[in-house]
Design brief:
homotrimer, mainly alpha, 74% helix
């Protein structure tokens, strides 16, 4: 991987890890876990998506357990949440915003690492991007005993997919640039927040059919 | 892997992916997830078992994220379920039948791929077959917030084990043929359906002991 | 890996697998699963941690599915639990003790295998040790539909971390000896039991802050 990608990769990973650590920590605070429960859930939410990504593309040991900077960012996120956290009613809203930011950072970080790994097809790179992006939140919600965000009402996986497609197409065109990556991450964040704000929902199965 | 195995492998994978996508989609419909929730749960149920299998035998990136045919089958299964699905009371029964079909296809597809991979012992191949077969259903049930089918009352893992043993023994005897594979898959399906129909249950722990 | 480590590795793996199989089986008995449900949960709890460890360090296929001794120990643990299990009120206490023993065995077995694998950094080895130790319990609790022990109140991951750090430091100093390994495992067990007995809890988020 060229140096410029490597630094963008690390920056995106760091952003994603930190915000997902905050989101995991907040869910843990809401569930009244103790200090170590908060730290564990923060780390699981923060590092889960990247670890799954690295397992899928054969990059072992995953950076999520070998890079001290990512580990530090995850632990720091958990600690910050534990010490200073907003009231319970505001927690859900905060989790949503952080989750959207993590979704953007990880959709791009995941597809970027996959598309620059030998032997990973463009289609697989898009899927790795999506899985990286939704993975942390799924791990967080499963451990906390709630149905994962990605399955609940509201557009969630689609913005991640768009971001991943953008990265993979840019890679195919040979025009992977730092600004493309950050734009893609920002776009995912914006689309996800738009869906939350406007309460945009995808269609649900016909009720009449389900009686 | 000889070509004939490769085509049987793909066919079994496709069957397993499609029926598990239907089963995942139906569970999502029952839980009233939206269109994308249905698609995500369908894909997770359909591709989960095969992805775990490929991680276990070191075949990365897993075909579940790199082969567009499997991805298309999974998405198609989710879409079909969303558009046309039976009433709620009938969903549980449908999920059971599809689940049994997926169990058969994946027990054989999993053990076949493992047994034809260098460095995987016969015992490991049987276990990979079982894990491939039950994996999709476990992912589906965990994400949907219900106790996995494999742990509830009724014979479930045993038919999968028998199918996987059959494949591995045939491989040891050098008589892996297409008809052996399909017979094994059919046998798993038949045994599982028999257990469902006759409400065959394995013994449970003595009640008197648990008071 | 030198022979003496290999035999300590196997012994620690066997101990961890057996006691986690008992703990998984007991949880299954408490949930009134049938014989095969008990066996499946016992195997998942027993082998889950080690399988995740081997995936993280790239040792595929994992010993948890390829070594018949570990498989036998897991199945035996499940069977023993099914046939002879204590009353329900005592099950929770038993699970705690077995869980602490498994935590010790796997924290050491996990970090030992990681630290003796080429290309795994000391930091990563500590994390692999923690993940191996808590992994089986997390799998057990997720499958059984309860919030994982590691997130509930009481010191849990910390003893595992101390044990893993001890092993990695000993490896760095070139003084990995059998007695060091067993002492580390015993220490983790003792610390965890102390936390259970004294009901030692880590601090929880300030209540006033969460209204």
């Amino acid at each position: 991987m060229p140096t410029s990608f490597a630094s963008a990769q690390l920056a995106l990973d760091l952003v994603g890890v930190f915000v997902f650590a905050l989101s995991g920590g907040l869910v843990a605070v809401k569930k009244r876990f103790d200090l170590f429960g908060v730290l564990v859930l923060a780390c699981a939410a923060a590092l889960g998506g990247g670890i799954v990504r690295d397992l899928l593309i054969g990059a072992v040991p995953p950076v999520g357990i070998s890079d001290w900077r990512l580990l530090t960012a995850a632990a720091l996120g958990g600690l910050v949440t534990f010490v200073y956290h907003p009231g319970v009613e505001r927690i859900t809203r905060f989790v949503r915003v952080l989750d959207a930011a993590g979704l953007g950072a990880f959709a791009v970080a995941g597809s970027l690492k996959a598309v620059t790994t030998l032997g990973v097809s463009p289609v697989a790179a898009v899927l790795v991007g999506i899985i990286t992006a939704v993975g942390g939140g799924v791990v967080r919600d499963l451990l906390a005993g709630q149905v994962p965000e990605v399955l609940r009402r509201e557009l969630y996986a689609v913005p991640a997919m768009l971001g991943a497609v953008l990265v993979v197409v840019a890679a195919q065109l040979g025009s992977l640039q730092d600004w493309v990556l950050w734009t893609a991450a920002g776009l995912v964040f914006a689309l996800r927040m738009l869906a939350v704000r406007l309460d945009l929902n995808a269609p649900t199965p016909l009720r009449s059919n389900v009686t």
